[in-house]
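User: Please predict the structure of the protein below. I'd like the answer in structure-token form so I can feed it into my own downstream comparison script.

Assistant: Understood. Taking the following sequence of 144 residues as input:
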Amino acid sequence: MESRVTLPEGRYGSARPRPLSRTWKWVLTGVGLLLAVAIAFVAYRNLGSAPITAESTSFSEAGPDSVKITFTVTRDEPGRDAVCVVRARVRDGSEGGRKEVLIPAGQSTISSVIKSSGEPVTADVFGCSYQVPPYLSTEARPTE
């Protein structure tokens, strides 16, 4: 035998929440998909492979307060100019000097001398980019 308890009306609210309409279900699904695509795009841009990579191959003393660095650049578009920032490190690990180096199209091995504020003990490549500043661009230089 089954007995039902009747609750006083209006005291405890409705027994079941109203289900979402079909339109709201589609709208929320669309918003969720757009959010997932946006997150995937941002992750791809930030975590995907870099278009330019550089690796220091050697460094040597080039004077009392300077160091010569040789590095190789690998790019997904070898026909484009690029710029790399190289830096000299002093004994305590801090940066003693920094320099922007133009990487001409088609060239992959570069050497450059970096002046330092102290006695440099190492040199490395900080990073590279296709966004070459106008003052480094070969197009901005006058022809000889």
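That's the full token string. Strands lie at 52-63, 66-75, 82-90, 95-103, 109-115, 120-129.
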